[in-house]
Amino acid sequence: MLKDTFNRTHDYLRISLTDACNFRCLYCMPNEQMKFMPAKHLMQADEIEILAKTFVELGVKKIRLTGGEPLVRKDAKVIVARLSQFPVELTLTTNAALVDKFIDVFHQAGIKSINVSLDTLQKDKFLKLSKRDLFEKVWNNIQLLIEEGFHVKVNVVVMKGINNDEILDFIEWTKNQPVHVRFIEFMPFDKNQWNSSKVFSYQEILNLAETQFSFIKMKDGTNETAKKFKPFGHQGTFAVISTMSAPFCLNCNRIRLTADGKMKNCLFSKGEADILTALRNQEDIVRIIKTCVGQKEKALGGQFEGDFHKIDTTNINNRSMIRIGG
């Protein structure tokens, strides 16, 4: 069992398969010309399997595959199949552009729930935000996931002045389809042009939702990051991931492996543990993993706290979101 100095048990591992992506979303990728890591710097399929097995033996019960876009990796199907052998809840986060090619793989691996990143329901705005004219493809693939019986969560990064005007439209979508929309407060990462004026907060989202919908607060799980709500008469739900205005660090159970095999004990942690190099050098990776968990800060990687309006991004030391993994 992996516990930090604040007695938090860490049993949820997020593994980034690649820093490459077929989209170019502003809040995730610093620029269009970004260069991705050479294949030799990435964890290979057998290394991912060995590392996952080690984490499972240390108590991990859930594994999420992320990217970049995890499904652009050529051996993604092999990795999914290999990880499905472990006694964990296996899931992934995707932009859905390629999921139609993986439906059988997902079913065979026992995947039940899939997170889809989608920041707008407007085709023109989708092109502007992602720099790819693929809205209809993504929309059709979300419909396919629903038809195939997957529990579909839709992640919406809300940015004031960009897509906060669509919050009600996203909630309306949950009326006739069993989609579970999660509004994510805009977070600061390397060169993603964050500033506090772009954050549309948890309370602002609820205040807006109340102008059109009646809903109840749902019971959240012990380690939930999302505060969930059920609109009356809707098949689906909506939630808010309030990292900036109401952090949920006290019950955090998450650890991360970047695509190049660095372990991060927090999304915002400065430090990283080089698990991949240790594995390749046949060193004791269990000791390194436990040390990394033990060094976890109380909240937000120790980089900021309190009023998000007072955050100075020049003092934040971290990777870009795509280099970390969603």
Q: How many DSSP E strands?
A: 12
Q: Domains counted in the coordinates: how many?
A: 1
Instruction: Please name the CATH topology.
Output: TIM Barrel
Could you report the average pLDDT, rounded to the nearest whole number?
Answer: 90
Sheet-strand content, in percent, reads 15-25%
CATH architecture: Alpha-Beta Barrel
**What is the CA–CA distance across the termini?**
24 Å
CATH top level is Alpha Beta
The helix content is: 25-40%
Strands across the major sheet, in which order?
7-8-9-6-5-4-3-2-1-10-11-12
Structure annotation, total helices: 10
Residue windows where pLDDT falls under 50 for at least 5 positions: none
Anisotropy-based shape:
globular
The largest β sheet comes out as: 12 strands, mixed
Structural class: alpha/beta
CATH superfamily: Aldolase class I
Q: Provide the succession of SSEs.
A: EHEHEHEHHEHEHEEEEEEHHH
Question: Could you characterize the architecture of this molecule?
Answer:
The chain has 326 residues and is of the alpha/beta class. The protein has a single domain (12-324), classed as Aldolase class I (TIM Barrel). It has helices at 45-57, 76-83, 103-108, 123-130, 135-147, 167-176, 202-210, 275-280, 285-294, 321-324, and strands at residues 12-16, 62-66, 89-94, 113-117, 151-158, 179-185, 215-217, 226-231, 237-241, 254-257, 262-264, 273-274. A 12-stranded mixed sheet has the order 7-8-9-6-5-4-3-2-1-10-11-12. The longest helix is centred in the first third of the chain and has 13 residues, at 45-57.
